[in-house]
Specification:
- By secondary structure, the protein is α/β, with parallel strands linked by helices.
- Strand 1 (57-59) and strand 2 (63-65) form a beta hairpin.
- The strands form two sheets. Strands 5-4-3-6 form a four-stranded mixed β-sheet, with helices on both faces.
- The radius of gyration is 23 Å and the shape is globular.
- 40% of the residues lie in helices and 10% in strands.
- Helix 2 packs across helix 3 (40-52).
- In the C-terminal section; belongs to the class-I pyridoxal-phosphate-dependent aminotransferase family.
- GO terms for molecular function: DNA binding; DNA-binding transcription factor activity; pyridoxal phosphate binding; transaminase activity.
């Protein structure tokens, strides 16, 4: 974790613990810089993170303050979908919403996109620009179906830190998660098969299921702990489920991170 994120997390924990009350002025940028031995820029980036999180508000020539009214939106209730396989319907409505993607008046919350205006991305943009100038025309040519070999080799090296033993041949580089999901689904499912999906689910996954001709079996999902494992287990006993689709970490659209003990239980269920 970078310095500014560490600092932002520290200040956030102090706010949550009540060390800085509503409306109270937070330490100045210079004070935090001296206290933690970091640059002024690092502190400013930390405060920007807190500002985005709604934990700090800037006041011109006065510094940063804890909001006086920190309203926390209530969590959505767990849905009650029909527990039977169904065809993907109402896709026209989704396509209609996607037509607004190019509108500058709409803030898109359905997909994760970085803010390319933040200073932390400047080194990446600089590196990309440098590589594009030095790589000549290789980026415009066809490459291996599994992706650039050098990239796959580097991913294999990095995977060692996660306890994985992978070679470049084990890795496929895709153009985003949508293609990766489509390849995985097509590899294990045939038209007419049933896929258990967390409800609500990522709309792009519904597009894939519809394209392959699969049926979706919605499983109710808690906004804190994730997919209801009890309901999933009952569904697995009743229907020949071929695959289970969910996002355990930073879920889209609910945003939860599934607890590790429930992840392990889910893996055991899938291995039966």
């Amino acid at each position: 974790m970078t310095l500014y994120l560490n600092l932002a997390e520290l200040i956030s924990s102090r706010i949550e613990q009540g060390l800085y009350g509503p409306g109270e002025r937070l330490p100045s940028v210079r004070t935090l810089s001296n206290e933690h031995g970091v640059s002024l820029t690092t502190v400013q980036q930390a405060y920007r993170v807190l500002e985005y999180s709604g934990l700090a508000i800037p006041r011109p020539k006065s510094g940063y303050f804890v909001p006086t009214d920190r309203r926390v939106a209530p969590l959505p209730q767990m849905g009650r979908p029909v527990l039977r396989p169904v065809d993907i319907s109402q896709w026209d409505m989704v396509q209609e919403l996607m037509r607004f993607d190019q509108s500058t008046d709409i803030v898109q919350l359905g997909c994760g996109m970085p803010d390319i205006s933040v200073p932390t991305l400047k080194p990446l943009l600089t590196a990309m620009s440098r590589i594009s100038r030095s790589a000549e025309s290789t980026g415009l040519q066809y490459n291996h179906l599994q992706g650039v070999l050098a990239l796959r080799e580097q991913i294999a090296r990095l995977s060692i830190d996660s306890g994985c033993r992978l070679s470049a041949a084990d890795i496929i580089v895709t153009s985003g998660c949508q293609e990766a999901l489509a390849i995985a689904i097509r590899a294990i499912c045939a038209p007419g098969d049933i896929v258990a999906v967390a409800s609500p689910s990522y709309y792009g996954m519904m597009q894939i299921l519809k394209a392959v001709g699969l049926k979706a079996l919605e499983i109710p999902t808690d906004p804190v702990t994730g997919i209801n494992l009890e309901a999933l287990e009952m569904a697995m006993e009743q229907w020949p489920i071929k695959a289970i689709q969910l996002t355990a970490n930073c879920n889209n659209p609910l945003g939860y991170i599934m607890p590790d003990d429930r992840k392990l239980k889910l893996i055991r269920m899938a291995q039966r």
